[in-house]
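User: Second chain of the day. Same drill as before.
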Amino acid sequence: MTVAAIGYLHIESSDIDAWMKFATAVLGLMEATRDDSAGARFLRMDNHPFRFMVSSGEQDRLLAVGLECRTAADWQRCCDALTAAGHECVPGDSAEAQRRCVTEFVTASDPSGNVIELYYGRQLDYRPFNSPAGVRGFVTADAAGADLGFGHAVLPAPQSETTIRFYTDLLGLAICDDLRLATPPSRVVFMHADNPRQHSLALYDQPHPSGAVHVMVEVQTLDEVGLAMDRAKAAGHPIIASLGRHVNDNMCSFYVLAPGGIAFEYGYDGLLVDWDNYTPTVSTEGDLWGHEYQFPGVND
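Assistant: Same format as last time:
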């Protein structure tokens, strides 16, 4: 195993003020007050300097996924594996590394066109987390303090098989569940990094206009989930999946659309796994109960 966790996302927004209001007032993330020459804004959820970088632009989309390596040696092994397989790894300059609060990073693209930023040596920010929505804290570490990443992301991967091999063979992630859905006919492959979270990344075998099928953040209590759902409804953000519980990672959650169309899963009680005693599963159902899906313009 080489990739330790999913560290951050870089998102482009056509209305950055609306996106930041959603992130702080609904999700309960904390804006990290820092200067940025390009005008990006940053969101914290723990002692990392940011978990979401939001840049202003003409589109609403995911720009890049930050994947963290635990050591420089792990990082170099990943870079070497990508290069040997014919993938271009573009080194980030020192200014861009400092912007991300990392020691070094490279940018690469998977076979479906998703952009990753592979890095190591992240500087932490130990100033207290203070949620403007009153969220006590997000689940980004286990009881022993091991980093779990910010949550998980599901990426579109129409080049399914080659994209799966990119993450498993070259970056060292491992498949933990293979979900085959009948309606619509589709496949979601869930992969875990070198931490106990049941999955950190998943690949959906269909295209998606925003570049992200959904993003998940996890809170510490079920009440926090309910309060966030109330905040989302009061603010008029579309709830695209009612409260429910997933089969594979046990997450009890709802889904809400951020301004611009990226879906966020807001959950509690996600499964932490001892990988030495786990058998990968094949699923045909995504949910134990709930999660009634309602997509604007589709179910109307």
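The first strand starts at residue 3 and ends at 13.

User: Great, on to the next one.
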